[in-house]
Design goal:
alpha/beta; Spermidine Synthase, Chain: A, domain 2; 7-stranded mixed β-sheet; 10 helices
Length: 290
């Protein structure tokens, strides 16, 4: 039996799927987890009614969250994923052969279990790779206890700031996070929709800019999220927006990355090129590459 699956990105907007089938619902100690099947995007999962990822378009989000930052680093060795229990970010990080260690710090074991079972296309067996270390627990506590200067990449694959992950989207946490990042590390974070979450996007960019010397924004349409979706990279030394097509082509070839579905060297510049409407809306935060 199909039922409507509707999402409300803000109080004044609704979108969704009129004919969806709920496959499973689990109420974990932290959140309500549901797995759905839809005609348009295949299987997807939601947390407390929010869309997280789908088998039909996950590659758009995960490729953009991982590869621009990873390619900006000449040889990333270790990566930390905050959240990311579906395994999609880890799967993309594993494409970079120099990365010998990936830590995924996921709060909810049920997210890992359900997505491994119902969305295997997303993780692609990433958690079975010996380079991936899955930590079930509070990501902030993991960062507090971790050894310094060990991660070259950090992927913020968390629920939005108006969720239990709110404490990780702060200037104070960014400073604590920098302690475990190498001097040439980069962070990637999803921001939200500039149309549905403009104030949130501006606040996140303001806080990132207070903590990191180089903050660059990306935007791309993600069907599951019903909108243009913004992400950012942040670093004290690396600037993904400054990478040329030739440099990207060479690094992708050297790393044997040739089977991506959305991101490539030709797409890269467009991700970092904000439209006029975005510049008008968030102009003070959309700094061009120097």
């Amino acid at each position: 039996m199909s039922i409507p699956l509707l999402f409300r990105p803000n109080p004044g907007a609704v979108y969704g799927f009129p004919h969806a089938k709920r496959l499973v619902r689990v109420d974990s100690p932290y959140q309500r987890i549901e797995v759905w099947d839809t005609p348009q995007l295949g299987r997807l999962f939601t947390l407390d009614g929010r869309p997280m990822t789908s088998t039909g378009d996950e590659f758009i989000y995960h490729e953009c969250m991982v590869h621009p930052a990873a390619l900006a680093h000449p040889s990333p060795q270790a990566a930390l994923v905050l959240g990311g229990g579906d395994g999609g970010a880890a799967r993309q990080l594993l494409r970079h052969p120099d990365i010998g260690r990936i830590v995924v710090a996921e709060l909810d074991a049920q997210v890992v279990r359900l997505t491994r079972e119902h969305l295997p296309e997303v993780h692609g067996g990433a958690f079975d790779d010996p380079r991936v270390e899955l930590i079930i627990g509070d990501a902030a506590q993991y960062v507090e206890a971790a050894a310094p200067a060990q991660f070259d990449l950090v992927v913020f694959d968390l629920t939005p700031p108006d969720s239990p992950a709110a404490g990780l989207y702060t200037r104070a946490f960014y400073q604590r996070l920098k302690r475990v990042m190498s001097p040439t590390a980069a962070l990637s974070v999803h921001l939200g929709s500039p149309y549905f979450h403009a104030e949130r996007v501006a606040r996140l960019l303001d806080d990132l800019s207070a903590a990191f010397a180089v903050v660059r924004t990306m935007s791309t349409f993600v069907p599951l999220y019903g909108s243009l979706w913004m992400m950012a990279t942040a670093s004290d030394t690396l600037d993904p927006a400054a990478l040329t097509v030739d440099t990207l082509t060479d690094r992708l070839a050297a790393r044997g990355i040739d089977t991506l579905m959305h991101y490539d060297a030709a797409t890269h510049a467009g991700l970092f090129s904000a439209s006029r409407s975005l510049r008008d809306k968030l102009g003070q935060f959309l700094k061009p590459a120097s």
